[in-house]
Amino acid sequence: MCRRGVLIAVALLVAGAAIAPEQLLDGEKAREGRQRPRSSQPGSRPGVASLRFLLGDWEAIGTPAGEKGGFTFSLGVQNRVMTRTNYATYDARNGRTASRHDDLMVIYEEGGQLKADYFDSEEHVIRYLVEPRGDYNVLFVSDSKPSDPRYRLSYNARDDGTLAGQFEIAAPGTPDAFTPYLSWTARKRR
Prior knowledge:
Elements: H1 2-33, E1 56-61, E2 67-76, E3 81-90, E4 99-110, E5 113-120, E6 125-132, E7 137-142, E8 150-157, E9 162-170, E10 179-188
Antiparallel strand pairs: 1-2, 1-10, 2-3, 3-4, 4-5, 5-6, 6-7, 7-8, 8-9, 9-10
């Protein structure tokens, strides 16, 4: 009897693991049909699943000559955490040496709020609160501290399948006066 109970428990665990990726596919199906993903249904709490539109391997398009970049959003920890790895390369020009920027952002839920922690190759660390805005937009906003700049990162999925991004900075002492620093458009790699 005990052995049978263990087999049933293992079967349920395997079935649960097999269902989780299918649930993510539902978000893709919802996007194609412009239906609401389950995570944004009225009364649901926004979690990492509300950001499914970001998932995939993206390549920057329309960049200036000598610049290229891309990023990947993926799920981990049994679909409870989303990560973004990002890179940008710059060719040598106008007396500057070639360079590369790499960063990692970890998006997670804590205490009923979506948060993100950003780390880059230039030793920057930014802590964000994450605000899903509808089904295909999200805003990442850092805390306001009087002596530090404040940062805002946004993504907007467009009808043509591209993803628009913008990074803005507000100077110390003016926490809501954001000015654009970088903007980009990306397309999923096939």
